[in-house]
Automatic annotation (TrEMBL):
Organism: Jatrophihabitans telluris
Domain SUF system FeS cluster assembly SufBD core as annotated: residue spans: 129-352
Cited InterPro entries: Fe-S_cluster_assembly_SufBD (IPR055346), SUF_FeS_clus_asmbl_SufBD_core (IPR000825), SUF_FeS_clus_asmbl_SufBD_sf (IPR037284), SUF_FeS_clus_asmbl_SufD (IPR011542)
Family to which this protein belongs: Belongs to the iron-sulfur cluster assembly SufBD family.
Segments of this protein annotated with the region Disordered: 1-30
Biased composition range(s): Basic and acidic residues: 1-10
A Pfam family annotated for this UniProt entry: SUFBD_core
Protein name: Fe-S cluster assembly protein SufD
Amino acid sequence: MTATTEREVEIAGPTGSPAERFTSADPDAFAVPNGREEQWRFTPVRRLRELFQPLTSQDTCEFETELPDGVRLSYVGRDHPLVGSVLVPADRVSALAAANVATVVLVEIAANAVLDAPIVLRSIGKPGVNYGHFVISVGSFAKATLVMDHVGEATVAANVEVVLGDGADFGLISVQDWDPGAIHLAAHAAKVGRDAQYRHTSITLGGDIVRLLPTVTFDGPGGNAELYGLAFAGAGQHFESRLYVDHSVPNCTSNVVYKNALDAESARTVWIGDVRIRPAAIGTSTYELNRNLLLTDGARADSVPNLEIETGEITGAGHASATGRFDDLQLFYLQSRGIPEDEARRLVVRGFFADIVSHIDVPTLRDRLMASIDRRLGAEPAAESAE
C-alpha cells in the first residue's frame, strides 16, 4: 500500500467522518484554495487570493487597550510555550498567519481575579495587510470578559487562542464593525478546563468579507461552552462562520446559537456548525441552532449543521436550522396597532436578535449594537442606556 502524505489528504478533502478536520502548523501542508474544497466552497476565494501566499505584515492596525486590575498584557515571540498550545491551523490562511506573525499579544488574567470591568483590545485599521496572533490565559477560578473590537479598514488574517484554567468563567466578545472594504479572516480556538465556563460571542456588522472559525475543546470534565453569533449583512457583504466543538472528555456541555439577517440582494451569510462527541465523552449535552432572516429577495444564507455522535451514553444532542423571509403577518399585526411600517420592521428585526443581545454583558456594547442595527434599517438610533 502506498503511503499518503498529509498534503495529499488535505487536497483530497475529508474521506471519513465529516467531523474529522485536517490540521497542520505548516502552511505548505495546505493547497492553495480554489473554491472547490469543502472548507472553501461557500467563500469568494477570488477576492482573497492575496492572503493565500506568505506576506510581510504592514502593521496598519493601531492598537488600543483598556486593562482592569488583575490583567497583564505583554508582547512575546512565537516560541512562547502558550503559543500554539491550543490552536493548530485548519486552513492555509490561519497557518500562514501563525508562521509569519512577528509578535504575539499575550493577555494574562490572574488566578482568582474577578474583574469589575471588561478588558478591551481595540484594533483601528488602515488599508494594508496585517497578521495578528493573540493568546489569552485565564487563571483558575478567574472571572472576566474581554472585548476584541475591530473598526476602520484593513485586511487581517489572525489567530486567537484562549486557555481557561479550572473553574474559570470567561467571555470573549469579538466585534467586527469594519468600514467597507475590510477583509477579516480569523481562527479562534479555546481550551476549556475542568468545571470552567466559556462564552464566545461574535458580532459582525461591517466589512466586505468576514470569515471566523471558532473552535472549542475540553480539557477536563464539567466544562461548559456557549457560542453566540449575530450578523447583519448588507449589499456585497459576505459573512461566514465555521464552528467546531470537540467533546472528548465526559460530562461537558455546549450550546450554539447563531442568527443572521440579510438586507440586500447581494448579501450573503454562511454558517457551518460541526459538533463531535467522541467515544470517551459520556454524559455530553449539546445543541446547535442557526436562524437566518431574509429581509430582501435575492439574499442568500447557507446553513449546514453537522452532529457526529460516537457514544450512546450522552445526556442529549441536537441541532436545528431555518431560513425564512421577513414575516409580513408580523408586520401587518404591528401596523394594525398604529405602528408605522419602518418602525414595525425595526421592531421585528430587534426581536429576532433579542436572545443574542441579552447574552452580551457589556451595556455600552449592547447599546452600540442596537444603534447600528437601527441605522442599517434607516431609523434614528435610540438614546443610549444610562447603565
